Amino acid sequence: MTHYSRREFLRKTGGIALLSAWGLPLGATTSTKTKGRVIVIGGGYGGAITAKYIRLADPGIQVTLIERDKHFISCPLSNEILSGEPDIESLTFGYDGLRQHGVQVIHAEARTIDPVKKTVITADQKILPYDKLVVSPGVDFQWDAIENYTPEVADTQMPHAWQAGPQTLLLRQQLVNMADGGLVCITAPPNPFRCPPGPYERAAQIAHYLRRHKPKSKVLILDSKYAFSKKALFTHGWQVHYGDMIEWVPGAEDGRIEEIDPENGVLIGDVDEFKADVANVIPPQKAGAIAFTAGLTDESGWCPINQRTFESSLHQNIYVIGDACIAGEMPKSGYAANSQGKVCAAAIVAELNGMDSPEPSYVNTCYSIIAPGHGISVADVYRFEENQITSVPGAGGLSSLGASKRDQELEVGYAYGWLKNITSDMFG
Ligand code: FAD
Asked: Which residue's C-alpha comes closest to atom 32 of ligand 1?
């Protein structure tokens, strides 16, 4: 674990520029008097970073993180578990690093929020008061969208594996148990959903395993959509590495699955039925459950916010970040959640110091590994314009279709480096 002095850390992250941009003299922020109580719900890609950066920017603010699990398992790079590459321990992180930054970590389920009394009530009936509340619960699933697809079916027969953990391991085991010549079906959800390139990277990682161990098998992607992220790069990569092993069935050609028969492994669309040996059903998504019980969602199932500060449009002093919020043109990704967490932390620190929130800028990069030595990426920079987060033209880009082998290899290295850096940023 790397430890920086506070000044060194702020210099590395641009924090000194941020603090001075708010007009906060650095010495003034080292006061031990409590300027406010911030609670963060959810210690994943969005919440962990917000809790840490508020403490880094102003140790005078008391920060409590409420996270239900003792360990966090990263979804980024979890598709690789399906090909048998990393083990799940390498993607598992604890919260001691955050405690060292003075964040009080409580492992509990946040059950309700009272926006009037400004309290969070946990499942074990603790009542915790806040001045500012950050909610970063990730996604939940629309369990009524696919007939017969229930949490029990997902846990035991047709895993979604869209929250890394036991279901990822179940899916891996099902692939290992499958006979050569078997059919793996992945259902890809409609927009918006967590990690737009994820199902297509998953198909590649599964094919990577099958090509080596069960080469007569096939991967069918049954998609609700007509297009998907980095499509040209994925289809090119699939063809180069796996020939015809991966087939994509778009919504227009009955890729949309409406019902399942879990006992017989059947996925049912409007016209066709697909008999799968392994079925990875990734259902349509919505904001994490606490966002609904707290009245933070609108009719879309996601949380409307002021996209400059991430404060809820529905409740004052509550901020929603990460997958659960509606963040303009930003995708639902771990890197986006990290970037939003930093903007939100800056806005909260400024407000608790009686200042205006600084001008935000946001960033996202998503790497996907198609095969060993072949990575691709999409990158974007965003700004706040006309009340919403918009992509800055020309500031990002996609990997080139004609990238050299060396560049493809470098992208794999960048993907691993990205995970190492972002998880040290969160938990170090
Ligand atoms: P999360 O990271 O899921 O954190 C939510 C946390 O809140 C969890 O720890 C949960 O336990 C906790 N929680 C929820 N409700 C409560 C409650 N009521 N009380 C207490 N705790 C609660 N993104 C990338 O940037 N790059 C990638 O390469 C990438 N690959 C991916 C691959 C896959 C297969 C998948 C599924 C996703 C991938 N993502 C990737 C997306 C990324 O995982 C999410 O966008 C990111 O995790 C969102 O962060 P979050 O804070 O919103 O939610």
From this structure: 76
User: What are the pLDDT digits (tens) for 322-336?
Assistant: 999 999 999 999 999
Residue nearest to atom 33 of ligand 1 (CA): 75
Three-state SS for the chain is CCCCCHHHHHHHHCHHHHHHHCCCCHHHHHCCCCCEEEEEECCCCCHHHHHHHHHHHCCCEEEEEEECCCCEECCCCHHHHHHCCCCHHHHEECCHHHHHCCCEEEECCEEEEECCCCEEEECCCCEEECCEEEECCCEEECCCCCECCCHHHHHHCCCCCCCCCHHHHHHHHHHHHCCCCCEEEEEECCCCCCCCCHHHHHHHHHHHHHHHHCCCCEEEEEECCCCCCCHHHHHHHHHHHHCCCEEEECHHHCCCEEEEECCCCEEEECCCEEECCEEEECCCEEECHHHHHCCCCCCCCCECECCCCCEECCCCCEEECHHHECCCCCCCCHHHHHHHHHHHHHHHHHHHCCCCCCCCEEEEEEEEEEECCEEEEEEEEEEEECCEEEECCCCCEECCCCCCHHHHHHHHHHHHHHHHHHHHHHHC
pLDDT above 70: percentage of residues in the chain: 92
Total-model pTM: 0.93
C-alpha 169 to ligand 1 mean position (Å): 17
The residues of the chain scoring below 50 in pLDDT are 1-31
Q: Give the closest residue (by CA) to ligand 1 atom 46.
A: 334
Residues with CB under 6 A from ligand 1: 41-47, 66-69, 72, 75-76, 78-79, 109-110, 136-138, 162, 194-195, 198, 288, 290, 322-324, 332-335, 337, 366-367
pLDDT at 85: 80
For residue 225, report the distance from its CA to the centre of ligand 1, in Å. Answer: 23
